[in-house]
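Posting this for the archive.
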Amino acid sequence: MSRILAAGLMAMAFWTACFPLTARADTIDHFALVMVWMPGLCKLESDRPECKDLSLRRYDGRNLAFFALQPAPVENGFADT
């Protein structure tokens, strides 16, 4: 049993030496989940097709709706929408 454990540990050490799990500097690892309140968006941009028949009886008229999942820039920490 100890030989199997030792072999497994050596294999894991070899694997991590060959394939390190470091992130490159140019990769994005932060994402922003952008939600929108549709009545507020439709007040600003009434020409959108989803605003044509928006009412408070619809689900997205009463709740936040998914808008985007986009990479968040590191510079200011906020997503550009």
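The chain has a mean pLDDT of 76. The first helix runs from residue 2 to 18.
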